[in-house]
């Protein structure tokens, strides 16, 4: 499988270096990000300039019927959200191992927005039951993450979006999201856990 567009970074978030030219391969060109943003609110395959960035294998059976696979839909959504998040940023907004819940916890604790407002938006996203409703909510949350320069793991986001198509996957994704969003700590060895504000 080809490398996903956002995987141009090392685990610490720095841009990888082109082995041939010895130059960083980021930040992405503005025209690539514009093509990705054009995918917001659209379905897989509807934005021709986005086609070169797709890496999912084609499901021949679905393709004959003119349908996209769940993997293709999830990749399209992740690319579109990445294009929004990375716009005008010189540092990478993809960071391996920073799952959505953890990134949103950082947003909540950023002092840029009221914690209740962020909690309400996160709850609205987490309680959606359809793929399209989730994407609408994620678009707003990613835009807020962008304002505080908070990166997230787009491989993980793509898996979350993929899993949202299935009842069991949606429940598992919500549980993981909740655990990452609610950062628990112990004040002392015998204390009850409390949510970090």
Summary keywords:
mainly alpha, Peroxidase, domain 1, two-stranded antiparallel ribbon, 2 strands, disordered C terminus
Order of helices and strands: HHHHHHHHEE
Overall pLDDT metric = 91
Count of individual helical segments: 8
For the record, the CATH architecture stands as: Orthogonal Bundle
E-strand count: 2
What proportion of the residues form beta strands (DSSP E)?
under 5%
Tell me the span between the first and last alpha carbons: 41 Å
The largest β sheet comes out as: 2 strands, antiparallel
Q: In CATH, what is the class? A: Mainly Alpha
Shape summary: globular
CATH superfamily: CRISPR-associated protein Cse2
Helix/sheet category? mainly alpha
Widest β-sheet, arrangement of strands = 1-2
What share of residues is helical? 40-55%
Instruction: Specify Rg, calculated over alpha carbons.
Output: 18 Å
Question: What would you say this structure looks like, in words?
Answer:
The protein has 197 residues and is mainly alpha-helical. It has a single domain (30-195), classed as Orthogonal Bundle (Peroxidase, domain 1), CATH 1.10.520. It is 47% helix and 2% strand. It is built from eight helices and two strands; from the N terminus they run H-H-H-H-H-H-H-H-E-E. It has helices at 30-37, 60-64, 70-86, 100-108, 115-126, 131-147, 154-163, 167-181; strands spanning 184-185, 194-195. It has a two-stranded antiparallel sheet with strand order 1-2. A hairpin with an 8-residue loop joins strand 1 (184-185) and strand 2 (194-195). Helix 1 (30-37) crosses helix 3 (70-86) and helix 3 (70-86) runs parallel beside helix 6 (131-147). The radius of gyration is 18 Å and the shape is globular. The protein starts with 29 loop residues before the first helix and ends with a strand.
């Amino acid at each position: 499988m080809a490398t996903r567009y956002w995987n141009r970074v090392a685990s610490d978030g720095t841009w990888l270096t082109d082995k041939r030219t010895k130059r960083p391969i980021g930040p992405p060109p503005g025209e690539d990000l514009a093509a990705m943003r054009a995918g917001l609110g659209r379905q897989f395959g509807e934005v021709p300039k986005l086609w070169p960035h797709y890496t999912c294998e084609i499901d021949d059976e679905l393709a004959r019927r003119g349908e996209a696979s769940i993997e293709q839909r999830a990749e399209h959504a992740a690319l579109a959200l990445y294009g929004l998040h990375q716009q005008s940023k010189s540092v990478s907004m993809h960071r391996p191992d920073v799952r959505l819940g953890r990134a949103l916890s950082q947003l909540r604790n950023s002092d840029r927005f009221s914690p209740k407002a962020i909690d309400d938006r996160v709850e609205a996203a987490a309680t959606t039951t359809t793929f399209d409703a989730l994407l609408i909510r994620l678009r707003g949350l990613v835009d807020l993450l962008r304002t505080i320069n908070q990166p997230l793991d787009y491989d993980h986001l793509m898996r979350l979006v993929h899993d949202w198509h299935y009842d069991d996957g949606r429940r598992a994704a919500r549980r993981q999201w909740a655990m990452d969003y609610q950062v628990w700590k112990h004040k002392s060895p015998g204390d009850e856990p409390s949510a970090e504000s």
